[in-house]
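Hi P.,

Sorry for the delay on this. The queue was packed all week, but I finally got your sequence through. Input first:
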Amino acid sequence: MTIKESCKNRIKPKLLREMKTEALLVFIRTTLEEFFLQVEQGKIKFTLGTKQNNEIIASNLRTLLSHLQECVVSSAYLRSLIASAPKNAMLKAIAKKEEPLMVYYDSLVKAIEANLENGQEWMPELVVICLLSEWISEEEKSTFLYPFLIDINYLELIDIYDKSKVDLEENKRKIIMNMYKVSSNLIEKLKNSTYKINTKRIKKKRRKNARN
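Then the structure:
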């Protein structure tokens, strides 16, 4: 039994701080896929300011999503791995290797659930832009594996939202401001998230190798 990683050329980080970046990108890939699906189905209407501004934001995010689908696994892959690992020894071993990624991704999922009430109106595309803007500025070293991330001018996109607030109703302005707050909370949660390596297991392996 095998589970496909859902991307053709996965970039696999080795350091834990780089795995946090991967977890953030898994979260962003999932968010953008769901967002554009809802747009295509007509469940949400993506309009902000001028038509040109809408096209700039949509074009940047679709290009970003295309890159992510090429080199970052989907959340569906992680869910399938978690569900199937207990029944299959090989998948259990793979799941163990993916454990840091799962822990960091889960911290983001729990954070968004804690920051947004069920049914609360939000702007997922703005959250994505803010997440990357803040993460890249603070964790630039851990993003070098994904050079396409710096192709987007996140501050320019955020500025479009800031300028559009002038013509929006108060409740819409509050939603935008809340998205900034939610994004910062998610980044803080990810930064503080920890994964404990089983050192006992490593010591046992070393002792065994020493005897051999």
